[in-house]
Amino acid sequence: MVKKGVENQELESEAKADETASDSESRADLCAPPAPVDDTPEVLNRALSNLSSRWKNWWVRGILTLAMIAFFFIIIYLGPMVLMMIVMCVQIKCFHEIITIGYNVYHSYDLPWFRTLSWYFLLCVNYFFYGETVTDYFFTLVQREEPLRILSKYHRFISFTLYLTGFCMFVLSLVKKHYRLQFYMFGWTHVTLLIVVTQSHLVIHNLFEGMIWFIVPISCVICNDIMAYMFGFFFGRTPLIKLSPKKTWEGFIGGFFATVVFGLLLSYVMSGYRCFVCPVEYNNDTNSFTVDCEPSDLFRLQEYNIPGVIQSVVGWKTVRMYPFQIHSIALSTFASLIGPFGGFFASGFKRAFKIKDFANTIPGHGGIMDRFDCQYLMATFVNVYIASFIRGPNPSKLIQQFLTLRPDQQLHIFNTLKSHLMDKGILTAATEDE
Amino acid sequence: MSGMACPPQCPDASVGFVHSALAARSLVSASLLSLSASRKLTCLSCVLLLVQWKNWWIRGILTLTMISLFFLIIYMGSFMLMLLVLGIQVKCFHEIITIGYRVYHSYDLPWFRTLSWYFLLCVNYFFYGETVADYFATFVQREEQLQFLIRYHRFISFALYLAGFCMFVLSLVKKHYRLQFYMFAWTHVTLLITVTQSHLVIQNLFEGMIWFLVPISSVICNDITAYLFGFFFGRTPLIKLSPKKTWEGFIGGFFSTVVFGFIAAYVLSKYQYFVCPVEYRSDVNSFVTECEPADLFQLHSYVLPSFLKAVLRRETVSLYPFQIHSIALSTFASLIGPFGGFFASGFKRAFKIKDFANTIPGHGGIMDRFDCQYLMATFVHVYITSFIRGPNPSKVLQQLLVLQPDQQLNIYRTLKTHLIEKGILQPALKV
What we know:
- The complex is a heterodimer.
- Chain A is mainly alpha-helical.
- Chain A has two domains: about 60-110 and about 200-390, no CATH class; about 115-175.
- In chain A, about 70% of the residues lie in helices and about 5% in strands.
- Chain A has 21 helices and six strands.
- In chain A, the strands form three sheets. Chain A has a two-stranded antiparallel ribbon. In chain A, strands 3-4 form a two-stranded antiparallel ribbon.
- In chain A, strand 1 (about 240) and strand 2 form a beta hairpin.
- The longest helix of chain A has about 30 residues, at about 180-210.
- The N and C termini of chain A lie far apart (about 85 Å).
- Mean pLDDT of chain A is about 75; it is low at about 1-40.
- In chain B, helix 4 runs parallel beside helix 8 (about 175-205) and helix 8 packs across helix 9 (about 210-235).
- Chain B has 18 helices and six strands.
- In chain B, a hairpin with a 2-residue loop joins strand 1 and strand 2 (about 240-245).
- Chain B is mainly alpha-helical.
- In chain B, strands 1-2 form a two-stranded antiparallel sheet. Chain B has a two-stranded antiparallel sheet with strand order 3-4.
- The chains are: A mainly alpha, B mainly alpha.
- At the A-B interface, helix 1, helix 9, helix 10, helix 16 and helix 18 of A face helix 7, helix 8, helix 14, helix 16 and helix 17 of B.
């Protein structure tokens, strides 16, 4: 109660200097955080009615965790198209959760036009990103259909016009007493779009590289979550960070090692299957996605010499691994060391705005955002990692860009490429005549 | 002395003028004490008018100064222009962040000032790196360290940003969570507005200085002519947000800007200096603007539509195609550009500030001058990529050379077939 008193004093001084807007904020602070709603399904309630509430909570969380993991496997089995749609739905739900928090914080649910404008901006940004993805990966399909070709040629202009319309609507909707609130919500919407929508599109880009680039990172983050919790539960003693008092150093380090091992094993298992390893392509003839290819160098077993120190332990001279497993160590390390910062960020956010969970969608776990907070940075990292270390530019995209150049530019590039290839000896006069 | 009460939160510069005006008035009033009431009133109103005109003169002189500075920088070349754009961007960022500090009384938040500048540095590093890689390809190929930096550019930028993000999370202090999140979001939205726009401006600049000059001049012209039309003919208010704007000013400004843009495009299209893409020549180690002007900047004869034929009594007219594009640019500057101004006005009302800062006497801060330019730079960039040019050829070549040899061979064959089909390349005769 003393804490509340001090906070009240601070807020009063802030409220005196500012306007009605921050008065509404201070009112939000004075309200106690909403009591956690017990919305566990009836079925579970009855099944667990005998256990004490602490174990009951543990069981509910456990069952829901297994349910979510099973759901994840089913979706993987159903293929890339379904995965894309799931990513899109998760994105929309996360956006909705964060925007709703904004409304609650600012008591701005009734602002004129604002709900419409938020969803409109979400639509615009999604249209822009999906348009770019579709143009890249569905190039041949797009070139065939006339309306699609025009849409794709002027894509940026159309997206910009749509966004501008939203911007002008926002300016025209500014109402005298609510200026500050409206600007806050505008800023809130844009930051949410930046976080949620860009990440989800990077996830889809990773997916198109090969489902393994989607599954391994997400699994590493989930594994780190679970392992850190287990290690903390059994061995936890030294607190890690004031933001999240339940996290401990033992959990953090134990989770790190467990995740690296898990990542190695998972990559070994998955690298064997084409359906995970091949880039997702759209086949024009069958009009569906196919994952069929010659696995690249990354996914072929190679012999590695074990360094001396491990040789004595393990007793082997060499080991056969997929090069991808080396990369998976990097991915797991990031998931364990930096991923949790996404979680701390979300914890700080929840404390700042005095909410216990983002929403109550999943019983025992909170909202969708609560499950995906550690994934924030992972998708961006994987995308940057792939672009920097794995693949170069996309050849089909380059051909696409080439075809839009002027004829003299095309000729210039063609001649430069020809002389380059001849210099390197890749192209000889003999092969030229093919 | 009730006549000229100072409005709340007057910028310091005009306070100075008002104070001097008040001082002058008190001096005059002291000597007027002996006069009759009506003569007192006349003298007071004369002094008022004098002060208003003085304000007008100050604004006018500063406007001319800024325009001359603009011309000077253009004369000095593209590199100076780039530096100017960078300087303006940093100043705008500083102004908006300072407003944030004042709004949230958060000037003393731990680490926050450092973090804001650090994020600005990161985002600038990312964008400049991308620009440098594109436009300085030959220069970059020579230096070894630069090669490394370019190849892993995204990774390095991301690592730098992440370091800032982790520092933010570690700097969260118990009592100040909400404030810190607000400032974090404020910084990011500011970066989104100022830094991305400034980089689009620089990309437009590299297309050819005319793509930088004509849009900016159109916006400035629209500002000035809308003000003048509003001053002389203004009657119907335009929008509640900015009570000084009128429909007469808006429409008059639109037509004047289109005409101005048309003429400016005609004048500038003649010179290679403005029309050619900016390139970096490694031999001279400087920027050069020398080229064969594109089709867009060569005179074409256009057949006039019939109603104009009667008016102008000519059959055809010689125009640069770019002038047609300039009509599109001027239209955007006049119709949509002001929305950027309204956005800034709404922002200032929302946070109860009169001007963004007091940098320029009579005009306010740098942000006040550039608020209408927000959307213009993005529009010009989108316009260029959609309607004028395709992707940058040197970038395509650069990416081609990075591919695997077998991929290169495949692409070579595809390109060859395509070029032969189009008749651009003649099939080689078998020897």
